[in-house]
Amino acid sequence: MTVEQSLLAFSLAAMVLAATPGIDTALVLRMSISAGARHGVSAAFGIAAGCLLWAAVVATGLGALLAASGTLFAVVKFVGAAYLVWQGVLLLRSRGLRADAPAVAASESLGAAFAKGFLTNALNPKVGIFYLTLLPQFVPVGVEVATFSFLLASIHVAMSLLWFVLLIALTRRSVLFLQQPAVVAALDRLTGVVFLGFGLKLAVSQPA
Length: 208
Prior knowledge:
The chain has helices at residues 3-19, 23-34, 37-59, 62-68, 70-92, 101-106, 110-122, 125-134, 145-172, 175-178, 181-203. The protein is mainly α. The protein has one domain. The model is unreliable at 96-104 (pLDDT under 50).
């Protein structure tokens, strides 16, 4: 496989992966609908930063150490699971049908939205394991592995950001409907369930 073939194949795979529904999608949608497009974009960049952190970990060889060390993996895993469950519980315990629900959500700072996106991925060791198992399959012979692996991860991040921007743009077309208190409350409940589910799944996951 040449470098060009590798980049093309991975870009196509990254497009599919980016558009696959998951906790990142749920978070960006929730932030953009309940707080506004700027908050959604901020959360998206936080998610991207968390992914790039794990990409750097994998590129420097620390990802293999994480996969090999049951103790280290367990520590990061349970911290991440606790964070996701905590966020899920907060969303499920939200007050529900409040007339000022969008305004309350929008009062959250852009930095807080970024932090939520960042921690959602930075505290999830499965992101690192995912890169550790996926990226080597697209590294052609004769290239510097660490640099090329980080390049591939950056492509995945770029595709994800493009997907998030598309989602945010779509929510703006229906903003009057989506920001109704009942819709915001339902979205909070749904996102809370997603966070709880991913948190519990992470808690029982294994390195491989």
